[in-house]
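Lesson 9: reading folded outputs for more than one chain in a single document. The general rule is that every protein is listed as its sequence immediately followed by its structure tokens, and records are never interleaved. Here is the first one.
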Amino acid sequence: MAQTDHERGAASVAAIMLVVGAAVVLPVAGAVSAWSMARSEAAMIADLAALAAARSSACSAAEHVARLHHSRLAECAFDGTDVEVAVTVTTASAWMPTVTRRARSGY
């Protein structure tokens, strides 16, 4: 079959659109992935910090655990034998620079 003039270059346009679409979607997907991983990491560190603080009855233990995991203890408060901590983790994404998660533990 012979190509008509209006069909010439259609594959090139489609390929360019595919490349531009991928260039837009991939960085956004990477940022969402980094944020999701940082959120999970912060939750895990907050759990560990809360357990450490509850066992030792001191916020210094929670701060030590957070520091060991390259994060920051944002808050630590005791309510009787229970402790609630908040841990902040820095992400690799410029759109969401930090993630903070809370955890509670006690006896």
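And here is the second record, again sequence then tokens.
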Amino acid sequence: MLTLPEILYTKEDLVITGSLSLYLQGYRDNFKDIDLVCSTVQDIPGAVIYRSASGHTSTDTKAYSKFYEKELDIFIEPILPEFIIINGLKVETIEHKLNHYLKIYDKVLPFDKQNILNRIQELQKIIKINIL
């Protein structure tokens, strides 16, 4: 049985993204860490804020918390992504994630471009399967 940190269920301004969102939607068999988007890290135990020039966030502000069994990788954004509710969790939609990657592709650091391209292709396949 999957046990996730309670903060994922209780924090209002939090949406799960990344591999965990794909896992929860049935598109992956596992996940490595817990990626999430929130507007503030208030109430997240052990959260450490830092600046990131990766191009993944509009604010260049991220955080992490090693307080939990799986590390939280936190993207701090003023506007939360579109989401669906799965088992009481806010989970980013596939369409929103694809649009996000398409939007940031030209902004990410060169070493990350292939990774983003791979994610775009994965999400495009998922959307195509859902349409058919």
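What the second record shows: Helices lie at 7-10, 18-24, 94-104, 113-131.
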